[in-house]
Amino acid sequence: MTNIPQRTVERFFRYCQFLHTRIEAGSEFVFSHELAASVGVSPEQVRRDLMNFSLKGTPQKGYSAGEFLRELYAHLESSSRTNVVLVGTGNLGKAILSYFNKRRPNLSIVAAFDQDPEKSDRVVAGCHVYHISQLEKIARDQKALVGIITVPAQSAQEVAALLIKSGIKGILNFAPINLRLPPEIFLEHIDITLSIEKAVYFARQSKTSKELQK
Fold first, then answer.
1. How many Å apart are CA 144 and CA 108, to the nearest integer?
2. Cα separation, 130 vs 151, whole angstroms
3. Which domain holds residue 122?
4. Judgement on whether residues 61 and 110 belong to the same structural domain of the protein
5. Is residue 43 classed exposed, middle or buried when 0-12, 13-18 and 19+ CB atoms within 10 A define those classes?
6. Do strands 29-30 and 63-64 pair parallel, antiparallel, or not at all (unpaired)?
7. Residue 200 resides in a domain
8. Which residues lie below 8 Å from residue 150, measured CB to CB, with a gap of 6+?
9. Crossing angle for the helix pair 6-24 and 43-50, nearest 10 degrees?
10. Residue 119 forms part of a structural domain
11. If we measure between CA atoms, which residue out of 63, 70, 77 comes closest to residue 4?
12. pLDDT in tens, the chain (214 residues)
């Protein structure tokens, strides 16, 4: 399966998250309607997705969660390890390092960077933190492909440019700013504040609607 559409890739990774949760809870099997509910799509969409895999389920048990997870990663990941670097070791950066450490064998945050000398030359969650002046050399030496930006908005564009100069091909941006990047660089923007504001807005809408129905 090649050239998977972006929406499909996102859906497949969300399947992975749900399957990890089920396996960690001790479940060996999963039904297509459970996958559909976890991702917010129809059972028909899940069944269409399953046609891409050589999985065999039963009406009584569903599909093997472990087998499904292995098949998903076989399509989504390379068999070789992909190295990642992170820039910005404030509270968010440290949280990401702590969460990510050793969760995925084929993905590794190999180095973190910060412009504050007091935050560099130390180890956070098993990851060495360097001064940002060393980013280009270390990222190239490590053959890093992905960079994570967790710096303030005013520094994000400069950091993105430095990451691209260092050979990075994909950027995950947590800074609340729209980055200007070359079209060949993949950008995933995550605005936590915006997501919270959206949740608050729709929660209020739901509350108002219920109050009007009384």
1. 9
2. 15
3. 82-193
4. no
5. middle
6. antiparallel
7. no
8. 86, 87, 88, 89, 90, 92, 93, 96, 174, 175
9. 100
10. yes
11. 77
12. 456 777 888 888 888 888 888 888 888 998 888 988 988 888 888 888 888 777 787 788 888 888 888 888 777 765 567 899 999 999 999 999 998 766 666 788 999 999 999 999 999 999 999 999 999 999 999 999 999 999 999 999 999 999 999 999 999 999 999 999 999 999 999 988 888 888 888 888 776 666 666 6
CATH code: domain of residue 99: 3.40.50.720
Is 18 in contact with 69 (CB distance < 8 Å)?
no
Specify whether 101 is located in the same domain as 62. no
Same structural domain, 110 and 185: yes
The rounded distance, in Å, linking the Cα atoms of 155 and 165 is 16
Same domain, 89 and 142: yes
Q: What is the rounded CA–CA span in Å between residue 176 and residue 150?
A: 10
